[in-house]
Amino acid sequence: MPCAHTFTDGTPCAHPADGERCLFHTPPDERDASDAAVRDAFVEAVESRSPGRKRFDGAQFGVLELSSRVIDSKDNHEVRLDGADIEELRLPNASVREPVSLTGARIDRVSAPEATFERSVTLDGATLGAGPHEFTDATFQGKLLLTGCQVAGPVTFEGAAFGRKVDCTDARFEAGLDLEGCHLPSLRVSGATVEGGLQLLDAELDRLEVRNLSPDGCLVDCTRATVRSGTLAQPATGATAFDLRRATVGDVAFAFADPAAFDHYGILRTEFEGFPFADYRETLRAFGWRLHGFTARERESSTADLELTYLKAKNGATAVGDNDDASQFFVREMRYRRRRYRDRLADASLPLDRRFDSGGRWLTNRLLGLLAGYGERPSRVLGLALAVLTFFTAAYAAFGVTAGLSESIYFSIVTFTTLGYGDIVPPTDVTRLLAATEAICGAFLTALFVFTLGRRVTR
Ligand SMILES: [Zn+2]
Fold first, then answer.
1. φ, ψ (nearest 5 deg) of residue 52
2. Which of 191, 192, 187, 188 lies closest to 204, judged by CA?
3. Is it the case that residue 458 has pLDDT exceeding 80?
4. Alpha carbon of 102 to those of 26, 74, 85, 107, 349: distances in Å?
5. Which among 35, 100, 127, 366 would be 20 to 30 A from 266, CA to CA?
6. What is the pLDDT of residues 117-161, one digit of tens each?
7. 350 Cα: distance to centroid of ligand 1 (angstroms)
8. Is the separation of the CB atoms in 118 and 96 below 8 Å?
9. What integer is the mean pLDDT of 450-456?
10. How many Cβ atoms from other residues are within 10 Å of residue 277's Cβ?
């Protein structure tokens, strides 16, 4: 006798029934069969190679124990469990070779560590209960669709590998989503709610799309992760925090309407491989090219970390041919290097010679920074040269070396450029010393100017 149950699309259930309904469509408290007997009937039906018998829409299961089993019917028909009710789905070490649809299903707990899913798995609109839901070290060779999925308990995919995309659009995770150490070709978390945060520590993602994530302040932890492309967008209201410390960031778009949101991207010792710095020129300018605003709040970053942060940013900007931003990051790198020297100079635990060495380096750094912006600011050298010329022009007039403004300017320039025609000669020891000093300054500043100009041109 066939089962009296009819699926929502009007197709009658194809499973045989002893009474009115088949084993799967009889509520667990009304059937005599044990969970193991239901499981055996399920496996047999899946392996029957009849597409109709692979439909379990609206079925009710207790514990579906499939540990270490191979679920394979050697055809391409989907195992359909749409709207099914499963108390617990156990798949540790199982190998599922068929596509599985659990659209709109309700499952209290899923345990699938080290399971392999060779085809797509659809949990569209499914409801997962208190869990925990474990997919640790699982392999998903097909797509994993979690669109509109409602999950009450914690979900972990730690160490899992994915062959195709994972889509969490409009899903809701009430106790966090853990994808630590996962390999993902594409992860989409759009319009989703992730209470407890999205964990992507050490993960490797070819593409990551995060848009309109809630709640406000939700943390997407990408520490030490690799994100090759994608979009990390701020929601329309509130903010999402992206922790990118020690991560590798490729051609990724930081999308935000309010430039102040730039502080929600945590950058510290972050590698940039193809990041389009030039797209953020205005924001970077507004932030004074300060990348570590996010982490500055925690006060845990050392000057060495900060120096490395800007070195990596400079290298990243140089690699994409963005020399203007590279120059700004270089100035910051030098500034934090100076602080590192200063800290070493002040560190009483270091041997004296190392402290002296650091002191010398600090002084050189300080002078180069002040005089030439670490070789990045030719205009600063030019301004300094003008100041020197003006000072000595005034000094020659005051000491009576020259008569009148034009002669003072002429003598100052001739001395600065070390032309030394000899038509005007300083009369006293003091004025001779003045002229010699200007000549030294002139030679030094000319050399510095040529050096900074050269740097700017070759950048
Ligand atoms: Zn049935």
1. -65, -35
2. 187
3. no
4. 19, 20, 10, 9, 64
5. 366
6. 999 999 999 999 998 999 999 999 999 999 999 999 999 999 999
7. 79
8. yes
9. 82
10. 23
The environment of the single-atom ion ligand 1, i.e. residues with CB closer than 5 A, is 3, 5, 13, 15, 22, 25
Counted residue by residue, the chain has a size of 459
The Å distance, Cα 84 to ligand 1 centre, comes to: 12
Instruction: Count Cβ atoms below 10 Å from residue 121 Cβ, excluding itself.
Output: 23
Confidence category of residue 29, pLDDT binned at 50, 70, 90: confident
Q: Which two tokens stand for residue 277?
A: 């710095």
DSSP letter at 135? Answer: -
97 alpha carbon – ligand 1 mean position (Å): 23
Say how many Å lie between the CA of residue 140 and the centre of ligand 1: 29
Task: Answer whether 142's CB lies under 8 Å from 118's CB.
Answer: yes
Distance (Å) from CA 105 to ligand 1 centroid: 16
Backbone angles phi, psi at 13, to 5 degrees: -65, 140
From CA 423, how far away is CA 389, in angstroms rounded? 19
| Long-range contacts from 400-407, C-beta under 8 angstroms, 24+ separation | 400/427, 401/426, 401/427, 401/431, 401/434, 401/435
Distance CA 443, CA 385 (A): 10
Distance 21 CA to ligand 1 centre (A): 6
Omega cis (within 30) before 132: yes
DSSP readout, 179-202? -TT-EES-EEEES-EETT-EE-TT
